[in-house]
Write a structure and sequence with these properties.
alpha+beta, three-stranded antiparallel sheet, 5 strands
């Protein structure tokens, strides 16, 4: 079972989670992060670090966010690894509580 980044991360891209990942399983897109399910070791460290509560164990992903399981797997294959904490997107605080925003995902 891997962990999954869901909708709350879109247009925020806080990277506190990246900083604690022992296996560098996060991948970075233009306005979203994903977890490579083949690299994730289910350590749970990233969950507590996410300030927008966007990360869930695969079995715990809310029903309305289940599409993000396949999306993480798909996008992780083409996006580059991110291994160090970076600044969030400039307007992340404006977007952190906005929902829905899946339509704003940039691939």
């Amino acid at each position: 079972m891997a962990y999954v980044v869901t909708e709350s991360c879109i247009k925020c891209k806080f990277t506190d989670c990246v900083d604690v990942c022992p296996v560098d399983c996060f991948r970075e897109g233009p306005n979203f992060l994903v977890i490579d399910p083949d690299e994730c070791i289910d350590c749970t460290l990233c969950v507590a670090e996410c300030p927008v509560e966007a990360i869930y164990a695969e079995d715990d992903v809310p029903a309305d966010q289940r599409s993000f399981i396949a999306l993480n797997a798909e996008l992780s294959k083409g996006w580059k690894a991110i291994i160090e904490k970076q600044d969030p997107l400039p307007d992340a605080d404006d977007w952190k509580d906005v929902k829905p925003k899946a339509q704003l995902l940039e691939k």
